[in-house]
C-alpha cells in the first residue's frame, strides 16, 4: 500500500509543522502522564479501596488519550486540503478513494496510539518508582484490553466522525470544535467507571467494544459514502 | 490521445459544458480558449477523471473516461488553475509526495532534474509558503510532469510568471510537444496560444470554433490587403467596382481590401486604384492576430447568446 504510506507520511510531515497540532500531540500525553502520576503519588498513603479508585481514574487518561490526540490532525485532514487548494491535484493522481480515506484516517490514529502507549509506559515506570511496584490492578486483562484493544477503535471512531465534520465545514477551527463531540463515546466508560468506583471488568469492556465496533462500521459507511472525489471537488466549498 | 464527442456537463440546472467535440493528437498542442466561466476548467476536470460527464463520450490515451479512471489519472499530467501545493512542506517534499502517489521510478533523480530545470534546486528545502507566485507555478508544473505523462492538461501554465520565466516555460512546453505528448492548454494569453499551439478550440459553454490559427483567421477575415495611400479618399472605396475586391474599408491612410487570392487579385486591384488616381505608397498583406479572431468570434457568440 505505497499510496497509503505516502498519505500517512505527508499527513505527519504537515502535522508537525502546525503549532496547534504539535501542542496537542506533544504536550497532551506529557501532561496526562504527569497528572496520572500525581494521582498515584497522592494515593500512596490512602486505604486500599480509595487508592484503587484513584488508580482507575488515572488509567482512564490513557484510555482517552488515543481518542483526543488524533482529533487535531484529523480536523485538519480534509478542510486543510481545501484551504490550501491541494485537493484537486491530489484527487487527479491515480490514488483510489479507499487509499486516500485509509491514509487520512490512519494518519492521525497511528501517532495517537504510539504516543498514548508510550505515555502509558512512562506512567508505569513512574508508578513503579513511587509505589515500589506496579499495582496489580493496572496490568489486569480488562484494563490492558481497554487501553490496547478498545482505545484504537474509539480513536478510529473519533477520526471518522472528525473527517465527516472536516469535509462539511469551511475552516479548520470550526472542524476542530465540532469534532470534539467525537470524544463522547470514550467518555461513557469513564463516567460509568467513576460512578461505580470499581475496577473495569471484562463484561463492560466487551459491551463497550461491541457498541464501538458497530459505531465504527456505521460511521465508516457514512464517511466512505461521502468521500467521493466529485462531491469533494464540486460541493465541499 | 484526447478525443471528445458531444461532451456535456450540467451542475443541477446550470450547463457548464455542452456538446463539446474536439481532438488533441500526439505531438500536438491545442489551446482551449474562452472567457471565464466558458467551461475550460470543467472540461479539464472531466478529462482528468475528476468529475464525470453528464452525457457524451471522451477518450484519453485510448481509454474511455469511465472505463479505467485510475489508468487515465496515472497517464495524465494536470496543472490546475491554482498551484495547489502544500505550503508548509518544502518543494522537495511536495514532489516526493506526488512521485510516491504516481509510483515514479527513480523519483529522486527526476525530482532533482525538474527542480534544477526550473531553478528551484537551491531552495528545495524551504517551505513553499516562502516561494514567490512564479516559483510556485514552476513547482506545480514540475509536479504535473514528474510521472512523464503522455497527455498534459495545463491550465494557465504561465499565469503569474515574469516575462523571462514565462518564456522559459513556453519553450519547455514546445520541447514537450516534440517528445510526442498531447497537450491541452487552457489560457487567456492569446499571443501565447498563437505562438505555441497547433490548433485552437474556442469555447463558450458550447464549441464556438476550432482550427489552426491560420484557418480561423482566413475563415473570419479572408485575406486582407493593406494599401497605403498618399491621397486617401472615400470615393476610392465607392468607385472600386471590381469583383476581385470582396470588400473594402478606408481607415485613415490605409485601404483594407479583402481578396480571395493575393497573387491573382493584387495586380488587378493595384491597376484599378492607379486608374482611379490613387497614389500608392505600399501594398502588403494585413496582419490578423488570434486576438482579432477571438474578439470577432466571442462578439458573435455574444450577439447570438
Q: Outline the low-pLDDT stretches of chain A.
A: none
Q: Decide which structural class fits the backbone of chain B.
A: alpha/beta
Helix tally of chain B equals 11
Largest sheet of chain B: 6 strands, mixed
Globally, the shape of chain B reads elongated
Which two protein chains have the largest interface (Cβ within 8 Å of the partner's Cβ), and how many residues from each?
A-B, 27 and 32 residues
Q: In percent terms, what proportion of residues of chain B is strand?
A: 25-35%
Q: Kindly provide the radius of gyration of chain B, computed on alpha-carbon positions and rounded to a whole number of angstroms.
A: 24 Å
What would your notes on this structure say?
The complex is a heterodimer of chains A (237) and B (305). Chain A has 237 residues and is mainly α. Chain A has 10 helices and no strands. Chain B has 305 residues and is of the alpha/beta class. Helices cover 39% and strands 28% of the residues of chain B. The longest helix of chain B is centred in the middle third of the chain and has 16 residues, at 163-178. The model of chain B has no long low-confidence stretch (mean pLDDT 89). The chains are: A mainly alpha (237), B alpha/beta (305). Chain A binds chain B through residues 2-3, 5-6, 9-10, 13-14, 17-18, 84-96, 229-230, 233-234, and chain B through 11, 45, 48-52, 70-71, 73-74, 76, 78, 80, 82-89, 93, 97-98, 100-103, 127, 140, 143.
Amino acid at each position: 500500500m505505497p499510496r497509503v504510506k505516502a498519505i500517512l507520511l505527508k499527513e505527519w510531515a504537515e502535522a508537525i509543522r502546525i503549532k496547534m497540532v504539535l501542542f496537542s500531540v506533544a504536550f497532551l500525553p506529557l501532561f496526562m502522564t504527569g497528572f496520572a502520576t500525581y494521582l498515584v503519588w497522592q494515593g500512596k498513603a490512602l486505604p486500599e479501596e480509595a487508592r484503587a479508585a484513584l488508580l482507575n481514574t488515572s488509567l482512564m487518561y490513557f484510555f482517552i488519550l488515543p481518542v483526543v490526540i488524533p482529533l487535531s490532525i484529523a480536523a485538519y485532514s480534509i478542510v486543510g486540503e481545501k484551504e490550501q487548494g491541494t485537493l484537486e491535484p491530489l484527487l487527479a493522481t491515480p490514488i483510489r478513494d479507499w487509499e486516500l480515506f485509509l491514509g487520512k484516517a490512519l494518519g492521525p490514529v497511528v501517532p495517537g496510539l504510539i504516543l498514548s502507549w508510550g505515555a502509558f509506559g512512562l506512567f508505569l515506570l513512574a508508578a513503579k518508582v513511587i509505589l515500589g511496584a506496579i499495582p496489580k490492578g493496572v496490568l489486569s486483562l480488562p484494563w490492558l484490553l481497554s487501553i490496547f484493544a478498545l482505545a484504537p477503535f474509539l480513536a478510529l471512531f473519533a477520526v471518522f466522525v472528525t473527517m465527516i465534520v472536516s469535509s462539511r465545514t469551511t475552516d479548520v477551527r470550526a472542524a476542530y470544535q465540532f469534532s470534539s463531540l467525537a470524544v463522547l463515546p470514550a467518555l461513557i466508560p469513564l463516567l460509568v467507571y467513576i460512578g461505580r468506583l470499581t475496577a473495569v471488568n471484562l463484561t463492560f469492556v466487551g459491551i463497550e467494544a461491541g457498541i464501538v465496533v458497530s459505531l465504527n462500521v456505521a460511521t465508516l459507511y457514512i464517511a466512505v459514502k461521502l468521500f467521493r472525489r466529485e462531491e469533494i471537488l464540486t460541493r465541499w466549498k | 490521445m484526447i478525443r471528445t464527442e458531444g461532451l456535456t456537463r450540467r451542475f443541477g440546472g446550470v450547463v457548464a459544458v455542452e456538446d463539446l467535440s474536439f481532438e488533441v493528437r500526439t505531438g500536438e498542442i491545442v489551446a482551449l480558449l474562452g472567457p471565464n466561466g466558458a467551461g475550460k476548467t470543467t472540461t479539464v476536470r472531466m478529462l482528468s477523471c475528476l468529475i464525470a460527464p453528464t452525457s457524451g463520450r471522451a477518450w484519453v490515451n485510448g481509454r474511455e473516461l469511465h472505463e479505467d479512471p485510475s489508468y487515465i489519472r496515472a497517464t495524465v499530467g494536470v496543472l490546475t488553475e491554482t498551484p495547489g501545493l502544500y505550503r508548509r512542506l518544502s518543494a522537495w517534499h511536495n514532489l516526493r509526495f506526488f512521485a510516491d502517489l504516481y509510483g515514479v521510478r527513480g523519483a529522486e533523480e527526476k525530482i532533482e532534474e525538474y527542480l534544477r530545470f526550473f531553478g528551484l534546486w537551491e531552495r528545495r528545502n524551504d517551505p513553499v509558503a516562502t516561494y514567490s507566485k512564479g516559483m510556485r507555478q514552476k513547482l506545480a508544473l514540475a509536479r504535473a510532469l514528474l510521472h512523464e505523462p503522455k497527455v498534459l492538461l495545463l491550465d494557465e501554465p504561465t499565469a503569474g510568471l515574469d516575462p523571462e520565466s514565462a518564456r522559459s516555460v513556453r519553450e519547455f512546453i514546445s520541447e514537450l510537444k516534440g517528445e510526442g505528448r498531447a497537450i491541452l492548454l487552457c489560457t487567456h494569453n492569446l499571443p501565447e496560444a498563437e505562438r505555441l499551439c497547433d490548433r485552437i478550440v474556442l469555447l463558450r459553454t458550447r464549441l464556438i470554433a476550432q482550427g489552426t490559427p491560420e484557418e480561423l483567421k482566413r475563415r473570419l477575415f479572408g485575406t486582407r490587403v493593406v494599401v497605403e495611400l498618399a491621397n486617401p479618399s472615400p470615393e476610392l472605396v465607392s468607385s472600386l467596382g471590381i469583383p476581385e475586391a470582396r470588400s473594402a474599408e478606408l481607415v485613415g491612410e490605409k485601404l483594407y481590401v479583402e481578396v480571395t487570392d493575393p497573387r491573382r487579385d493584387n495586380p488587378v486591384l493595384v491597376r484599378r486604384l492607379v486608374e482611379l488616381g490613387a497614389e500608392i505608397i505600399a501594398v502588403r498583406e494585413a496582419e490578423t492576430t488570434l486576438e482579432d479572431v477571438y474578439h470577432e468570434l466571442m462578439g458573435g457568440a455574444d450577439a447570438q447568446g
